[in-house]
């Protein structure tokens, strides 16, 4: 497709192609910035998914699964909400809210130096919280594309958001990745990914590979079968964080972190140690660092995209996906009819012992009055 293409009866307009991820058998995901005419031209992120034979029952089932899982994880405060899902011109589209902020890759390039370890640890802790929520879904959700450009620092500077989920992996379609050549994948993915072995450990590896890049300025490229220690590239990386990165980036999955909870335990211990040591951002040097370009597999020139001919009749997926998304959102609205505990007004402070004593005294006075009144009658 080309910039300026109108979708869903003119509601959405494609603006700029941000990245493109190629899978097997002609399957690819393209991420666009766009506008939503029904929301006063609000900026949105539109993920275009192209799958041959998209009308098959298997593909439609995968799309419904992706819609459900992405709608569910979109309720997390650190994940962009899924706003719409539909098919148009023989392709599937997923519309997400636009996140305002700066990606970690952009921050790294803007600063020209490694990010403070304390900041990277805090980022990892917040994203691990998202990964734990994803692991608790049925079936568990795998992001599959975690890297510096897909983690955004909110404008407040204290919140980190996980963006750009893979639609293919959200739908569980691992058959499109098994056998991929390593050159078509990012350096933030574990070795077993090429064999189609995908689970929650995939995202844990990618998160720590991202952290490695942030504190060293270089992506984790394996040399002679292993990744160079982070302290070799940045001597100011602590031994504790070096140990976490070393364990998390081992080539064998069974030797790495097995769950988000396990990684969070070590990160919390490290954060506590950093706080006690009084580590501050100013301790980091103002030295320039080499920054590698974004992998070619994630970028595509818009000049190679030919506009697709419009489909006069919407297919069954175009009808099924919005209905599925609407049912999920309606269920969520019903759940929100009751206020959350944190939204309730605070209870008035009181002295329970004093109140009980006053009640007992009042009862005794009432009993004495009744006895006196009864004697007066007789």
From TrEMBL:
Its EC number is 2.7.11.1. One of its GO terms (molecular function) is ATP binding. Residues 286-313 are annotated as: Disordered. Keywords: ATP-binding, Kinase, Membrane, Nucleotide-binding, Transferase, Transmembrane, Transmembrane helix. Gene3D superfamilies: Transferase(Phosphotransferase) domain 1. Residues 295-313 have a biased composition (Low complexity). Residues 17-268 form the Protein kinase domain. It comes from the Bacteria. Pfam families: Pkinase (PF00069). The chain crosses the membrane at residues 356-377. It is an enzyme of class 2 (transferase). This is non-specific serine/threonine protein kinase. It comes from Thermogemmatispora aurantia. The lineage of its organism: Bacteria, Bacillati, Chloroflexota, Ktedonobacteria, Thermogemmatisporales.
